[in-house]
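Per reviewer request, we include the raw input and output of the structure prediction for the construct analysed in the revised manuscript.
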Amino acid sequence: MDVLVTGAGGYIGAVLVPKLLDAGHRVTALDLFYYGPERLPPSRGLKRIRGDMRDTDNVTRLLQEGTVEAVIHLAAISNDPSSEIDAELTRSVNLTALDHLMRASKDAGVSRFVYASSASVYGVKETPNVTEDETLEPITLYARYKAEGEQILNGLVSDDFCGVSVRSATVCGYSPRLRLDLTINILTHFALTRGRIQVFGGARMRPNIHVLDIADFYVRSLEWDTELINGRAFNVSAENHSVMALAEMVRDRIGSQVGIEIVPTDDHRSYSLTAELVERELGFTPTRPLDLACSELQAAYSNGRVTDPDSSVYRNVVLMKERPLLPVEWEELD
């Protein structure tokens, strides 16, 4: 298929795009390349466009060229703290530009739209294992706009326009566009660079999935029959653990000499996901253990792929405060 991937140069996109190419798809990668185009190097079957989702005229023009058959939409001001930095920016990217992309995709004859929602749409739940039937009670801007995006998509789906929402758990593991502001990655960074892990509120529960597994799900999302996924949302998660249990997992993988320190926190978000629906109805099961992420990061630190692990480039909030997210002129890089 001809696939448009938005946010293709991001943490998940930089892993997903090579998988799509390996599967035989042709990919148009649309991204600001805020972290640099080298995170997604040139490849056969890949067209890279440096562009802004808010540039609605060029987005429409790209879709109206008539070659895009499927869209995988990853682009967003990503995670809760980043979204709070500039509320208007977050709305313009995560809701206004998203609304336009969905409608323009349908108008252009795109047959499938895969939307990266988030498990954060559920809010804080006392339920031990949250299913897709739980009410959505988002408590942050990021989560609210993710939930509203699902509503927009569900209002557009038809026999000719298949839409599916992916409520992913927190992602972990190595990516060419590495993030060290995600739970397991943060804990591993502490273990490797400080020899001591700080745990903020260890009792909080978190669902996690390896970046290779969530990328596999997106590839498979282009293959499932329309009647199985159209107008639906799916939890995609591997395991649920408390933050303390994750810290202990990291310590066991990195070395018993690593200490663990509990730090008080005002962040009381806690939730667990069940991914039984996606396994039962779509036959998808994650295959990578979470501690693989620790081993990958340890190797990346050792072999020089992470040259300055304390750099702001690995942390969305810090980088956005240092370097505002400005529009860029639309250009094809390849």
